[in-house]
Design a protein that fits this description.
With 239 residues, this protein is of the alpha+beta class. It has helices at residues 112-154, 212-215, 228-234; strands at 2-6, 23-25, 44-48, 85-87, 92-94, 97-99, 105-107, 159-171, 177-191, 198-202, 209-210. Strands 1, 2, 3, 8, 9, 10 and 11 form a seven-stranded antiparallel β-sheet that branches. Strands 4-7 form a two-stranded antiparallel sheet.
Length: 239
């Protein structure tokens, strides 16, 4: 669970017990195609490729006036409809000469060429729409992480990105909500300038931190000595 934590320095009289107002991303909600983070020697949690948005297939000239271009932009709205009527195309004899047709329309049942062109184009559009729906979660995830990456670059002395583990939730004796992770580890981001791949990894300059004493006290039933074994275990290397 990655929490976007701000203002990590807390005063002793103003503890942050409910962190739901902070930006966060739950690892459980990652797109299915993204590898879930596992323990790795290099500390890499996520490796995200930039997925550019593609335009829908261009409408052929033969469908001009038959398909509304704005209906082709949203992959969630279903097939762009073919109009019941459309313009007549081609050259017709006018006063014993060949010239542009008058402003006339024809029904689509009578426009076999239009129906064939529409069927071919619609097959391409459906493939595009399916690909867009599949790639959208990846694009949104990348965009969100990249925005955090840029913010960290601007506010590295004010803001941290951390991995949070061990979510503790309940109501204290005053009825106030407690919603906070017991363990956090600082996370870093980097972007490859050549490929735009964005990498999220555990910071090698920080360690897993037990934060129980930052938001719990004796009135909550918290006993400092009981947290000692956890503090010692988190500092030991994993086997």
């Amino acid at each position: 669970m990655i929490n976007f934590l701000r203002d990590m320095v807390h005063s002793s009289h103003r503890r942050q017990r409910d962190d739901r107002s902070r930006e966060r991303m739950w690892l459980a909600t990652l797109p299915e195609s993204i590898r879930k983070p596992t323990q790795r020697p290099d500390g890499v949690l996520l490796s995200l490729d930039h997925v550019p948005q593609s335009a829908p297939p261009e409408l052929p000239d033969s469908l001009d006036g038959w398909v509304e271009p704005t209906f082709c932009l949203d992959p969630d709205e279903g097939d762009p409809p073919l109009a019941e009527e459309g313009p007549t195309v081609g050259l017709v004899p006018v006063a014993d000469e060949w010239g542009p047709p008058p402003e006339e329309t024809r029904r689509r049942e009578e426009a076999g060429d239009v129906l064939r062109a529409y069927g071919t184009w619609l097959d391409r559009w459906r493939r595009w729409a399916a690909r867009e729906r599949e790639e959208r979660p990846l694009r949104e995830l990348y965009d969100r992480m990249y925005a955090w990456h840029q913010r960290l670059a601007r506010e590295d002395d004010q803001t941290e990105l951390v991995l949070g583990v061990g979510l503790l939730t309940w109501e204290d004796s005053d009825g106030a909500a407690v919603h906070r992770h017991l363990f956090t580890h600082r996370v870093e981001t980097s972007v490859d300038r050549r490929t735009a791949r964005l990498t999220v990894r555990l910071s090698s300059e920080s360690a897993l931190r037990l934060e129980d004493q930052d938001f719990l006290d004796s009135e909550d039933g918290w006993v400092r000595e009981r947290g000692g074994p956890l503090s010692r275990r988190k500092s030991q290397p994993a086997e």
